[in-house]
Amino acid sequence: TKKIVIVGGVAGGSTAAARLRRLDEKSEIVLFEKGEYISFANCGLPYYIGGTIKERDALLVQTVESMSTRYNLDIRNFSEVVGINRENQTIQVKNVQTGEVYEETYDELILSPGARPVVPPIPGINDAKALFTLRNIPDTDRIKSYIDNESPKRAVVVGGGFIGLEMAENLHERGMEVTIVEMSNQVLAPLDIETASIIHKHLEEKGVNLILGDGVKAFENNGTKVITNEGKEIETDMILLSIGVRPENELAQKANLNLGERGGIQVNEYLQTNDPHIYAIGDAIEIKDYVNGNPTMVPLAWPANRQGRAVADNIYGKKVSYKGTMGTSIAKVFDYNVATTGNNEKTLKRVGIDYEVIHVHPASHAGYYPGASPIALKVIFNKETGKIYGAQAVGMDGIDKRIDVIATAIKGGLTVLDLPDLELAYAPPFSSAKDPVNMAGYAATNIVEGTTETVQWHEIDEIVANGGILVDVRNPDEVAKGHIKEAKNIPLDQLRNRLEELPKDQTIHVNCQVGLRGYVATRILQENGFKAKNLDGGWKTYQVVN
Ligand code: FAD
């Protein structure tokens, strides 16, 4: 019988343990977890702090007892693995309660130690009395009891990633005045700026004080004052530091396992490290970006779970290759949901892949059925082949479904030309006969097939500066609510009769509200011998950043 040892008992580790047992009733499986809890719901922690999840027990998906019994596992909590001897195939384990260190042998070793919050040496950080990071149940207990007992009125969240925004909402839910300080010019790095900007506006609408493009320089007065690089001073009663995570790689490093540039444990497609008896999974590893093929790190629960199962299969000779991570993710930010899959423009630029973009703004379901809300959906693709590189969506409803459909399309190797042909479920409360994903497919197909050409929101200023021609085809009442200053207003229904007002020797840049009428207008202009381009996503995409 084999002896399989697992380091880390939460997302990846416990998934691997359960699958190993289901594949083999006989092997010895030992799972080490340095904390008290195994298999807890990391992703639920912010909602327990905020009060949406009422019972602490609900976070404990499995306990040491329940999981040991169900899967016949030797689970040892409060047990930190502190060393690996690869030659002898042994590990050193420290009982963190008694300090005792002992050895344990293994035939196969799985590392799933996760990633821990980055805590930089910001001046004053050690004196800050109410400064927290959030990763596990003890962190959660600390934050919750501080809020319950001290009733803080103000909070500063440092870092506007998924955890930062979820916490900002939940602290606001607890009645606090919340400030987010984010070094970059946008929150949620996996998005591009025009998608993130919708969230910026919403955060401000909700009364969150959002500071972008500015980092924390120091904490003063025991952490009751946050000083930013730009000299802002924010009084606060608590601080949540959520500026990212770094892989727990010390064990792997000491054992001379290969690490990537950013410290992730390197594995092959079977999740094996450079030692064939040591596997690694989850937040601690470097994986291949599914879209562009480059090494990257994506600390999310789906990859950890998928890899946990695959690693068990591989140990039992059922070869399952892990094909890479697309980074499909979603978050609730107050009344909005925001989701993304695949690569964004920033990543594609960095790795040197040419791409085209479309923005559409369809309704979440039929407009005549109550409760429909707009979806801002962006798809990034290859202009020649239609290959889908990524998508982003923001709105109040139906966001998860659209991004999941596109994520499935990417995995299935579909192109934007296939999206119009997806037959998706429709009745008025759910969608439209042309689903937003179909709409995105039509818009992208028009570009691949050369039926229309577009300009992007960020190109307009330069077009204006060069004296380009802009035509706004909305109705005057819409134009009155906000428009590109230099655009001449010719409502779409008057366009055919006013063609003589436009030059034939220059490109006419058309805009409407969301891009649909603009598309019709460019078609009319092209058919009449004009050169025309449509502002992709219309005024709605343009105005959110400008
Ligand atoms: P973990 O689940 O972190 O487990 C690693 C465990 O290993 C830890 O318990 C640690 O104590 C233990 N360990 C480390 N070193 C040792 C050692 N030497 N010896 C013994 N034990 C050790 N992802 C999503 O996809 N969606 C979400 O909504 C989402 N929300 C999140 C919210 C929060 C607050 C947090 C913290 C994370 C969230 N995540 C979310 C990320 C997700 O939880 C992780 O990607 C996932 O848990 C990674 O699994 P893992 O097994 O690699 O690491």
TrEMBL record:
Keywords, sorted A to Z: FAD, Flavoprotein, NADP, Oxidoreductase, Redox-active center
Keyword DNA damage in annotation: no
MF term (GO), any: protein disulfide isomerase activity
Residues annotated as domain Rhodanese: 464-544
Highest taxon listed in the record's lineage: Bacteria
PROSITE patterns linked: RHODANESE_3
Pfam families linked: Pyr_redox_2, Pyr_redox_dim, Rhodanese
Cofactor(s) the protein requires to work: FAD
PANTHER family, per the entry: NAD(P)H SULFUR OXIDOREDUCTASE (COA-DEPENDENT) (PTHR43429:SF1), PYRIDINE NUCLEOTIDE-DISULFIDE OXIDOREDUCTASE DOMAIN-CONTAINING (PTHR43429)
Protein name: CoA-disulfide reductase
Taxonomic path: Bacteria, Bacillati, Bacillota, Bacilli, Bacillales
